[in-house]
Amino acid sequence: MNRRLFIGGAWVEPDGGHYEVTDPATEQTVGWAPEASRDQVHAACEAARAAFGAWSATPAEERAAVLGRAAEIIRARLVPYAELAQAETGATTGTARGMQVGVAAARFRRYARVEPAEWPIAPQINEAGPMGKAGVMGALAVRQPVGVVTCITSYNNPWANTAGKVAPALAMGNTVVVKPAPQDPLSVYRLAEALAEAGAPPGVVNVVSGRAVEVGEAAVASPEVDMVSFTGSTAVGQRIAEVCGRSMKRQLMELGGKGAALVFDDADLGSAVAGIGTTFAFYSGQICTAPTRVLAQRGVYDRLVEQLAAYAGRLKVGDPRERDTVVGPLISAAHRERVESYVELGRKEGAVVVTGGERPPLDRGFYVSPTLLADCTNDMRVAREEIFGPVVVVIPFDDEEGGVALANDSDYGLIDYVWSADVARAFRVARRLRAGGVGINTVGRNMEAPFGGFKKSGVGRDVGSYALHAYSEVQAIVWPG
């Protein structure tokens, strides 16, 4: 399968030829992705600019109808789309269907619901002065589209992550240029096909892929681009922010995480173990929201480590297409080596490898066994840096004050977690955590709640109505009452 670039509503042969997309479970070729040139990226940005005027002027109900039709197309093709996503990412069947393609369809459905784009502000009584006579001033706040948005997506979920950017951006009247992660771009082209079939006009959605750094750089730096929405590492996000700052481009950044999970002595250990255990299973730990840094109160520390090790040991690692597989492969051989290097670093730093730490006995695929590192301290690199794999570190703490201090002693602040039977304490602790979200006795999400990070975990908030704000400028209109 040789894909072409999608620019201005046309499928365009790539100047840079094609590169191989590899199935991380089988190490076989999934297909061939197009390598865009810098000029082709600029052409995509220009196509998005040319389409912006008409699309932003299209009634919100008509834009919503396009998104609704796209949702139905994606849902109708869930199985073949999920099979492609699974081949590109190594996700298990349930994850590919439910959390990748299924969530993408749900996000398009969500933004097919029209919300008010303006709201009144209470009138203000002004006294006479240099600005004029006394009077009452009325005001209205209006959400306006930003313009052309470059969407740079992560490799762990090409469907849901892309939909989470594109759907609210289009709903607000923006046009987009999508630069997918180089490891799994084929799914994003399928999404573009669905949108075109649903009636998105030429130029409203453009997709350009490539392994070369210059592809992403051109999509960020183009003078036609008004905003960049990025999901990925903090290091790359910092470089993008520097470029955006030079021309005051708007930014939405969802970056790295090192989620702290505080487990108090009175916690339901079964619930805590199941929640923390999602780090091993969900995307094989390749997810920024995972509770990878477990802070266990001393009274429960030994039991928690024991139960986490037993839980990890029961998880089947292997072919993600097999029904009983829980832990699939990492995205690439290079990333597997990175994760393994962190496990070895943990050993050298003094952590105890309670379980895992080695490759499972499989003939092929980029697998790492679920790994638990105990007796860690918060100054270890394995406790401070994002590993992005099925690796959990456990650190003891004495009391509430110490646990909160440990949790906040991090460069990251995306999502933290608290497990405690004392609900009042759980909420008290949650409010003291410097994180964009806190799960209390759960790793579940409310998909209308704002999502984003404190500190180096990002800038801005999306999801639900917050995404509509993220992809808009707010204009004030004032008049004499």
Automatic annotation (TrEMBL):
Residues 11-477 form the Aldehyde dehydrogenase domain. Gene3D superfamilies: Aldehyde Dehydrogenase, Chain A, domain 1 (3.40.605.10), Aldehyde Dehydrogenase, Chain A, domain 2 (3.40.309.10). Signal peptide: none annotated. SUPFAM superfamilies: ALDH-like. Pfam families: Aldedh (PF00171). GO terms for molecular function: oxidoreductase activity, acting on the aldehyde or oxo group of donors, NAD or NADP as acceptor. Keywords: Oxidoreductase. Transmembrane segments: none annotated. PANTHER family: ALDEHYDE DEHYDROGENASE-RELATED. Belongs to the aldehyde dehydrogenase family. This is Aldehyde dehydrogenase.
